[in-house]
Write a structure and sequence with these properties.
By secondary structure, this protein is α/β, with parallel strands linked by helices. 30% of the residues lie in helices and 24% in strands. The strands form three sheets. A five-stranded parallel β-sheet has the order 3-2-4-1-5, sandwiched between helices. A five-stranded mixed β-sheet has the order 7-8-11-9-10, sandwiched between helices.
Length: 257
């Protein structure tokens, strides 16, 4: 155990438990029964402030510890500190905690601190499948998921993954597609895919899935970057077989109908 945690948890501290809970896309209707039960059992709830507001009806009489964006490690330390006092702690992660979420942060902190805390990951509906449900059936065949955020991943690495997905004709789901300052990555993505796919390839954009501000946009590979895309958007690029039908995107699985 590191010196930091020796200061937090001396020989008399009791061991609690950490639930890392996937809360789904936003609407409480998509919170799994397992996730609700874990929240009920938790005395302390740690999370990003915005996601905590979405869970407000379920958080009465609990200690709430929130923080802003880019504070994942800080929230992880908060959770371990509370659990080391014997409490049951819920760490909130939108979507699924094991998909660009808090599961990795907590497990890495457990490893680096030498903690023996009990940890349980509670899966949730990730943004890719939430967006796909609203778009119809675009993920019926092999697909890839790529985050365009280069905050934690070198841009050169992301570029290689974009090229590989485009060449392999994967249906491709894009997380963190564009921010106010980060705008060139999505244009590189578009240009790369246009080298390997028809410009009329269907593209679906889902903003704020299952939240009050939800918006669904259908476009194509040629023009999709002209749409209003932000960090609350998920972009789904079809493969060579994907087609649009009744305002939905369908990728054939290959059944003989």
């Amino acid at each position: 155990m590191s010196q930091n945690y020796q200061e937090i948890c001396d020989h008399s501290c009791s061991q609690g438990k950490i639930y890392i809970i996937g809360t789904g896309p936003g609407d409480l209707a998509h919170l799994t029964p397992h996730a609700k039960k874990a929240l009920e059992e938790s005395e302390v709830v740690v999370g990003y402030n915005y996601y905590l507001t979405l869970l407000k009806p379920l958080l009465e009489n609990k200690k709430i510890l929130g923080s802003g964006m880019k504070r994942e490690i800080e929230r992880g330390h908060m959770a371990l500190k509370e659990a080391n006092t014997g409490k049951t702690v819920a760490v909130i992660s939108s979507g699924d905690p094991g998909v660009y979420g808090m599961a990795g942060v907590i497990w890495e902190l457990i490893k680096t601190t030498g903690s023996s805390l009990e940890v349980e990951v509670v899966p949730g509906v990730t943004a890719a499948t939430a967006a796909a449900a609203l778009l119809g059936a675009p993920l019926m065949h092999d697909f890839a998921v790529i985050s365009l955020s280069d905050l934690l991943t070198p841009w050169e690495t992301i570029k290689k993954r974009i090229e590989a997905a485009a060449v392999a004709d994967f249906v491709t789901v894009i997380y963190n597609p564009k921010s106010i300052k980060r705008t060139h990555q999505i244009e590189f993505l578009r240009e790369t895919f246009l080298k390997h796919r028809d410009p009329h390839t269907p593209v679906g954009i889902v903003k704020n899935a299952y939240r009050p501000e939800q918006e669904i946009i259908l476009a194509n590979l040629h023009n999709f970057t002209q749409q209003n895309i932000d960090m609350f958007s998920i972009v789904v690029i079809g493969n060579a077989q994907t087609y649009q039908f009744n305002d939905k995107l369908i990728t054939p699985r290959g059944y003989r109908l």
